[in-house]
Amino acid sequence: AEEPLSSDAARRARAVIARQTGHLSRLVDDLLDVTRLASGKVALHMQEIALDDALRQAIDDHRSLAEGAGVQLALELPSSPVRVRGDRTRLAQMIGNLIQNAVRFTPDGGRVSVSLEQRDSEAEIRVRDTGSGIEPHILERVFEPFVQGAQAATRARGGLGLGLALVKGLAELHGGRVHARNIGPGQGAEFSLVLPVLRAGRDDGPERPA
Asked: pTM, whole model, 2 decimals?
């Protein structure tokens, strides 16, 4: 017999369909973005951005994801604002992908720490987790499309290995760079996103097609 639309089973089925549709939509968007980056068809809408505000928003946006995985999110910011020139949407995408990746590889009860530091003309965002780290043979290729570690966390929480590739491509379009390192055996990994700091007196300038 068919389940009534208001039954618990029907509500659970609708929730599963909604989640799976959302996953598929994000995967398609990521695939399209990788293709656009490869063909130089990503347009950046540049403006002045306060990185500390962007990080606070990213933490708020991903708190429920972390809580659902049993992972604590922490944020450390400098006392003074740090400003860059960038595309607000793409910057949020970069930060979000780094946080999502860290949560994916952090076991229940672990911690993901996000910090910001300015050194001279550069700002560095660091996302550090307490997972098992990155396998040595993966570390050098971790920003390539479709590269994944073998940890069970990847299989359990999904992912096609596109998020970090997007971070790398978008960071380079912003004049920045990314790198990854193991903190220590079984002590997790740290990903760094480095961007040029906005110079005083510099205007927003025109939108820049990449």
From this structure: 0.77
Q: Are strands 43-44 and 177-182 parallel, antiparallel or unpaired?
A: unpaired
Helix axes 88-104, 163-173, angle to 10 degrees: 150
Give Cα separations from 197 to 31, 51, 172, 189 (angstroms).
Answer: 30, 10, 14, 25
Q: Which residues pair with 189 in a beta bridge?
A: 182
DSSP secondary structure string for all residues of 135-159 = -HHHHTTTTSTT-----HHHHHH--
* pLDDT tens digit sequence for 47-98: 999 999 999 999 999 999 999 999 999 999 999 999 999 999 999 999 999 9
Alpha-carbon gap, residue 20 to 14, rounded angstroms:
10
Q: What is the pLDDT of residue 18?
A: 64
Helix (H) or strand (E) holding 128: strand 122-129
Residue-averaged pLDDT of the chain: 82
Give the number of other CB atoms < 10 A from CB of residue 159: 20
pLDDT, residue 138, reads: 86
